[in-house]
Design brief:
The protein is an alpha/beta fold. Helix content is 49%, strand content 12%. The chain contains 29 helices and 18 strands. It has an 8-stranded mixed beta sheet with strand order 11-10-9-12-13-14-15-16, sandwiched between helices. Helix 1 packs parallel to helix 3, helix 5 crosses helix 6 and helix 10 packs antiparallel against helix 11. The longest helix has 22 residues. The two termini are 26 Å apart. The model has no long low-confidence stretch (mean pLDDT 95).
């Protein structure tokens, strides 16, 4: 595959134009490294060449490494030795460039991130177009890696240790003006001036030797420099607080920068490669790359959409119910350019729902993300009403009324009476079986579940639930609708709680069961946060109120009778609601005390209601219970066919309820631990904690046969 073009003009300026064939963006690949090295060698050997311009024929300069290629290496059993060699290949190319004896300028016509910006750093001069989309940076920390092609060494030498650490550890990607202020680029020009400026710099006969390659160059003093010592101490503490030692990338970046700063450049680059290799061959980088980037992007491109169904466009949608969820759905639909009928039982409720969009849009205007005219145009697309007749030309209707089967059935019948025959009817339910709700529909093949997450305008995930009679056409077209909203769909089959609600509930139930077992509430909450969960289970229950899980359990008991297995926290919920009347923050009292809506601390009566045991478990034991119970339930969902693909399980875990990103998701966590070890540890836990920790048969079979969830 051709990745670049090479040419020399009459004045001896060679131009290497990056242009990866068949790809929307330039990426670092083995083919690119080989071809770029050959181009540099050709220019270096040509006595007529005075200097080199590196630019791009694509809208962006270069996006960095090919993450799919890297993931393939990881899943094939990449060793640290292999990973080190992978890093050194790109390093050699960059070192060849900066020591070729010819001045080199990077003419950045668009964004340059990761390996793309590392290529620019290896050039002697960097000029960038004045375009806010032309961002630069080294955001490898977001995929569990460090810049492994010289970035941890060149950037600190270029702009200073403090600023370089801020860029790399915080994943900053500054736009041109800020990049110029930091010293990450040398000039900002208009697009028309980009190449002329680059040529003029070369024709000015600049020095082609970097400062760190000059004789007498002195490396940093390390901890002997009080400013550096202070920076390292502060950054180390901040990293520990932020990562809870779950993600090794930030502290490894700090080590690479600090240790490399006292070494000559080539030894510093060798150190960088070794540290990069540890991360690349480790599980956290694989997990982050696989789920947060590769699989997430595939899902956004509708990887699970049924084949052979023509794409569907949307013009107008109905949203039935103007509460928190319905208001959010109406908002994102209007922002996506759709006309929206927002319907509720009273005009005041419908207007209140529209007012939510007004608040969201006002904030966008205040932050400079929209003009007032744009915001008004979006708001104008929403019609608040009580009149079902306005649904008559809607392409799709989303029902987001109260979680009650009878109420939902009534809304379904009234809406379908006026909706076009081919309109899709979607229920935004979090737990009620779609097949049961579809019994109220005259067109069950056009009935589907679309489970949005709150707040809808900030949560990108949509759980698409396929009922027993939902057609492939309906599934495909519903996914088209999700894509139109610029949201990410995962596809699951019907069951009580579907996937996300079913697994999420195991987290809050296990948290309450730990309390019943005598574990100190502070230990429960801190173990969850140390594991990387955004909030402890007791605080989370208070936020959502105990009424919701309690109502779900009561409905399940009514529907399934003796066949329903009560959650392990049943008695805790019953006592908190019926004995203590402490359902959550909404009522000013739950597991925590509240004053003026603010959490004040644990309820004073908590220790007498659920006395702490004399022997407290370790934080690792509590952490394991909270993580493993969620991973087990996900494995059951996959085995039962609720989950259609393991990738959707991992994406749903990260985006749906904030499962720790470093794990890659619930199923990736099992792979990280090792299937055999996970099964063995669950069986030990089952013997002491109960059958909820018994691993399913399919998971045991996988462990015995060595079959992973991902090839």
């Amino acid at each position: 595959m051709n990745t670049l073009h090479y040419g020399v003009d009459a004045e001896g300026v060679a131009t290497v134009t990056l242009d990866a064939a068949g790809k929307p963006m330039n990426v670092v690949s083995p083919e690119f490294i080989a071809q770029f090295s050959a181009a540099v060698d050709k220019a270096a050997r040509d006595s007529s060449v005075r200097g080199i311009i590196v630019t791009s024929a694509k809208p962006a300069f270069m996006a960095g490494a090919d993450l799919k290629h890297m993931l393939g290496m990881m899943q094939a059993g990449l060793t640290e030795r292999d990973a080190c060699a992978f890093s050194q290949t790109a390093q050699r190319m960059h070192r060849q460039l900066e020591t070729c004896g010819k001045p080199v300028v990077a003419a950045l016509n668009g964004l340059a991130l990761g390996g793309g910006y590392e290529l620019a750093l290896a050039c002697h001069y960097r000029v960038i177009v004045d375009d806010p989309k032309a961002i630069v940076g080294l955001p490898e920390v977001t995929v569990g890696l460090l810049p492994g092609s010289g970035g941890t060494q060149r950037l600190p030498r270029l702009i200073g240790l403090d600023e370089a650490l801020a860029v790399m550890l915080d994943g900053k990607t500054p736009a041109p003006a800020e990049a110029l202020r930091l010293g990450m680029v040398d000039a900002v020009v208009s697009p028309a001036e980009l190449l002329p400026t680059a040529r003029a710099w070369i024709l000015g006969s600049p020095d082609a030797v970097r400062s760190w390659d000059r004789k007498g160059y002195r490396a940093g003093r390390g901890l002997l420099d009080p400013a550096i010592a202070s920076t390292i101490a502060a950054r180390t503490a901040a990293i520990a607080s932020r990562t809870q030692h779950n993600d090794p990338a930030p502290i490894t970046i700090l080590s690479a920068v600090f240790e490399g700063s006292v070494l000559p450049i080539d030894k510093a680059l060798a150190l960088e490669s070794k540290l990069f290799a540890r991360l690349l061959a480790g599980p956290v980088a694989r997990n982050l790359i696989r789920t947060s980037f590769v699989h997430k992007n595939e899902a956004a491109k509708l990887a699970r959409r049924p084949e052979g169904v023509p794409g569907r466009s949307y013009r107008k949608v109905g949203v039935l119910g103007a509460g928190m969820m319905g208001s959010g759905i109406a908002c994102v639909a209007a922002q996506a350019g759709l006309d929206v009928v927002l319907l509720d039982s009273s005009i005041d409720l419908a207007r209140n729902g529209k007012a939510y969009s007004a608040k969201v849009l006002d904030k966008a205007v205040g932050r400079g993300k929209r003009t007032r005219e744009q915001a008004d145009a979006v708001l104008g697309r929403i019609v608040a009403t009580t009149d079902y007749a306005l649904l008559q030309d809607c392409d799709l209707a989303v029902e987001a009324v109260f979680e009650n089967t009878d109420i939902k059935a009534d809304v379904t019948r009234r809406a379908e009476a006026v909706l076009p025959q081919q309109a899709i009817f979607a229920s935004n339910t979090s737990t009620l079986p779609i097949s049961r709700l579809a019994e109220a529909s005259a067109r069950p093949d056009r009935f589907i579940g679309l489970h949005f997450f709150s707040p809808v305008d900030r949560m990108p995930l949509v759980e698409v639930i396929v009922g027993e009679r939902t057609s492939d056409r309906t599934l495909a077209e519903a996914m088209d609708f999700v894509a139109r909203l610029r949201m990410i769909p995962i596809v699951v089959n019907d069951s009580r709680g579907f996937y996300t609600s079913r697994v999420f509930q195991t987290f809050i139930h296990e948290g309450m069961k730990l309390l019943e077992d005598g574990v100190e509430p502070a230990l429960i909450e801190n173990a969850a946060k140390q594991a990387g969960l955004p909030v402890g289970p007791l605080a989370l229950i208070d936020e959502t109120t105990l009424e919701l899980p309690w109502k779900i359990v009561q409905e399940a008991i009514a529907a399934e009778g003796d066949g329903y297995r009560k959650p392990c926290s049943y008695e805790v919920m019953r006592r908190m609601i019926e004995e203590f009347e402490r359902p959550g923050r909404k009522y000013g009292k739950g597991f925590y005390e509240y004053r003026d809506g603010r959490r004040e601390g644990f309820w004073a009566g908590l220790s007498s209601a659920f006395p702490p045991a004399a022997r407290q478990p370790t934080i690792d034991e509590v952490r394991k219970r909270l993580l493993y119970i969620q991973a087990l339930e996900t494995a059951r969902c996959l085995e039962e066919g609720v989950l259609r693909h393991p990738a959707d399980g991992d994406i749903g875990a990260l985006l749906g309820w904030g499962f720790p990103a470093w794990t890659g998701g619930t199923l990736s966590l099992i792979e990280t631990i090792g299937l055999s070890r996970f099964v063995d540890e669950c069986e030990v836990m089952a013997a002491t904690l109960g059958p909820r920790f018994v691993p399913p048969g399919g998971l045991k079979d996988r462990a015995r046969s060595g079959r992973h969830f991902y090839a």
